[in-house]
Amino acid sequence: MYPEDRVLVAYMPNPADFAILQQEGWYRVPQQHAPKGLYAEYIAFYFGRPFGAEKWSIHYYAPRLGHELVTRAALFPHEPDHPRAQSLYYKVQLGPLQKLARPITSLRWRRITFLHTTWDRFQDAVEINDLFVEGDPYVDRLFATLKERGGQPEQGYKMKEADT
Predict the structure, then answer these.
(1) Which residue has the higher pLDDT, 161 or 28?
(2) Which of 82, 99, 113, 119 has the smallest C-beta neighbourhood within 10 Å, fewest atoms?
(3) φ and ψ at 110, to 5 degrees?
């Protein structure tokens, strides 16, 4: 785990979907609603209202192992007549599910479908807003990406010149 690793926070709509994640090790994302950045190293899960006392918070995350594009019928062969049976979904394969020592909570209800952050922010976060914190000591994602791709970026720091 590196500070610049990408974490995608994804909405977990209900306990039935969470049970699939726990038992089968995958999560589904409708292709038409998929975020840019399914390539995150980790996926974390924001629980919705059906989770009762755990709602509006992140309790779990898992490493992303890969993904494939399949129909809903392939995901749920026992539901061949479902209205979205032929719709395309990303089946995101995940490694072992990890429980956070302390959940990342939302101070109020938020409509979060997908949220991108970095590992360092994710590790330090107490509240959802903390996932957006910029500046020291956090990784500048743009700077890290440009460097990763062979660029020679420079950090832009404001300097105050001495009066002469």
Answers:
(1) 28
(2) 99
(3) -135, 145
Q: Look at residue 50 and tell me if it is in a domain.
A: yes
Q: Is residue 161 part of a domain?
A: no
The answer to whether position 153 is within a domain reads no
Alpha-carbon torsion 136, 139, 141, 145, what sign? positive
Question: The CATH number of the domain where 130 resides is what?
Answer: 2.30.130.30
Which tokens hold the place of 66? 């890969």
- Domain extent at residue 15: 6-148
Report which of 36, 56, 35, 34 is spatially closest to residue 46, judged by C-alpha positions. 56
Residue 45: name the closest of 19, 67, 66 by CA: 19
CB environment 121-130: b (16+ within 10 A), e (fewer)? bbeebeebee
Compute the average pLDDT of residues 98-117. 88
pLDDT at residue 155 above 50?
no
**SS3 (DSSP) at 126:** coil
What's the structural domain count of the chain? 1
E strand segments, 15-162:
26-30, 42-47, 57-71, 88-94, 98-105, 114-118
* Residues 87 and 72 sit within 8 Å (Cβ to Cβ): yes
